[in-house]
Design brief:
The protein is of the alpha/beta class and 237 residues long. The protein is built from 5 helices and 9 strands, in the order E-E-H-E-E-H-E-H-E-H-E-E-H-E.
Length: 237
């Protein structure tokens, strides 16, 4: 899988597939639904059970044009079932196929922080955490402990979140939930995050409103009616 519908990146690279639910944001996991639907295909033969794909490790070498690559859209790279040895192999590819910029997003920042501890700064690697509600706010503390470019994905944003500051964060993404059973995201939850990003000069990417829970229809407006909202990630960073 290379092309992607994720608006803020060019390609996805899935050396690992499968995951297990860990928090409220996992309830309507799109990756789980997709893996079950594509189970007849080779890399999804194990459904959504965590599977390491050694044969997919070298894929970024075949992409010659510099690309913004989302690593593991179909899993969480720092799941307990992914061995340190396999993580090392992925990191080796990231550092050697360095014409690309890689985004790694996790809901398991404790493992990420432990694995990355003591490593030198890698200029083409961005590490991020998902924060969907107040209960997930402690993930940001682990992210601050990583020597890397850091980003936060507030997606799906499920409630208003109290944030004291975003210092040390290089990029913020906000998005509502999509698909059947999606939960609503309210404008008053988004605006304080936007304002904090503006005040701190942090690039902000608004992904989508998502769907309303009651009847799963797409919300009427795709973007907030504020020009500053479409601040986005600078791929040359």
């Amino acid at each position: 899988m290379a092309k992607t519908k994720i608006q803020y990146c060019d390609k996805v690279w899935n050396p690992v597939t499968g995951c297990t639910k860990i928090s409220d944001g996992c309830l309507n996991c799109y990756a789980e639904k997709m893996a079950k639907r594509l189970k007849i295909m080779g890399i999804y033969k194990n459904g959504f059970n965590v599977t390491l794909h050694e044969e997919r490790l070298k894929i970024p070498y075949s992409w010659k044009a510099p690309s913004l690559i989302f690593v593991n859209s179909m899993s969480d790279l720092f799941h307990d079932s992914v061995t340190d040895e396999f993580l090392e192999k992925i990191l080796t590819v990231i550092q050697s196929a360095n014409q690309h910029t890689y985004l790694i997003l996790t809901k398991r920042p404790e493992r990420m922080c432990k694995f990355m501890m003591g490593r030198p700064f890698i200029p083409n690697l961005w590490l991020g955490v998902t924060i969907e509600n107040e209960k997930a706010m402690d993930r940001i503390n682990y992210l601050w402990g990583c020597n890397a470019y850091r980003f936060i994905s507030f997606e799906p944003l499920l409630e208003k979140i109290e944030i004291n500051h975003l210092s040390g964060i290089d990029w913020v993404i906000v998005g509502g939930e999509t698909g059947a059973g999606a939960r609503e995201m309210k404008e008053e939850w988004v605006l304080p995050i936007l304002e904090m990003c503006k005040d701190s000069d942090i690039p902000f990417f608004f992904k989508q409103w998502g769907c309303k829970n009651k009847n799963a229809v797409i919300c009427g407006k795709k973007y907030l009616e504020i020009p500053e909202l479409i601040l986005t990630f600078n791929k040359s960073n």
